[in-house]
Amino acid sequence: MKRVVVLLYGVLSYGVFLASFLYAIGFVGNFPGFKSIDSGIAGPTGRALLIDVLLLALFAIQHSVMARQPFKRAWTKIVPEAAERSTYVLLASLLLLLLYWEWRPLPGAVWQVTNVPASALLDVLFGSGWLIVLVSTFLIDHFDLFGLKQVYMQFRQQPYRPPEFKMSGFYRYVRHPIMVGFIIAFWSAPKMSAGHLLFALTTTAYILVAIVLEERDLTGFYGERYRKYRDQVWALLPLSRINPPPERHQ
């Protein structure tokens, strides 16, 4: 029964993640029918700014603290180890849904692209950014990243093994293609409002900090293999290096 409960919990957590991810596209892109980054009635600027910053900070703190190894070791004394990743994913997704719900618009226009081809190009880049994010999760291990693999292996009573370190697809050219995809999507806006700019600036700053924290963990986990990879491949820019890494498991 415990294995079934943990499996269902993992599936539920993944479902909430999927909903929050898909909703993010409509939220950032100001799609009709969505509670979006620029929708709603604008209130006092100071109050809106404070609420938006607090919502972003809440997500950033949870996302970073719960991803660190010391927290994971302490947390798995409370929750089943197989459900640790699902819990992380669930809480992050719920905080995103809270952000969409409580976000306050800051409608002042920073820029607005009226040229039709240029606006269409930004729309293409917006969609490409989200596609890069999704594809990149499968290049490493999508179902491990979002906790489904862990709960399934426990349900089957099979030992869980973390994904092997590999460099394929986008990972041959940048170390963090998921983050690259988010940055492209967040900044590719034909109309950039003050609220959207706040969102893009804050999330980009968080991404830069998160990369430093994540790479510290990856270096500790994979050791010299990751240090060599870091020396060969840029973090966010697909710039060529003298000896690009081979496409194989390390």
Task: Please give the structural blueprint.
Layout lengths: L1 H28 L15 H21 L3 H7 L8 H19 L6 E4 L3 H25 L1 H4 L2 H8 L21 H11 L3 E3 H29 L1 H9 L18
Antiparallel strand pairs: 1-2
Helix pairs in contact: 1-4, 1-7, 2-4, 2-9, 5-8, 8-9
SSE class = mainly alpha
- The shape, in one word, is globular
Enumerate how many helices there are, as a single number: 10
Oligomer: single chain
Can you count the beta strands? 2
Spatial arrangement of strands, main beta sheet? 1-2
Describe the sheet with the most strands: 2 strands, antiparallel
Overall number of domains: 1
**Average pLDDT reading:** 91
Order of helices and strands: HHHHEHHHHEHH
Low-pLDDT ranges: 244-250
What distance separates the N and C termini?
Answer: 38 Å
Rg: 19 Å
Taken as a percent bin, the fraction of beta residues is under 5%
Helix content: 55-70%
Description:
The protein is built from 10 helices and 2 strands; from the N terminus they run ααααβααααβαα. The protein is an all-alpha fold and 250 residues long. It has a two-stranded antiparallel ribbon with strand order 1-2. The chain has one domain (2-232). It has helices spanning 2-29, 45-65, 69-75, 84-102, 116-140, 142-145, 148-155, 177-187, 194-222, 224-232; strands spanning 109-112, 191-193. It is 64% helix and 3% strand. α1 runs antiparallel to α7, α2 packs antiparallel against α4 (84-102) and α8 packs antiparallel against α9.
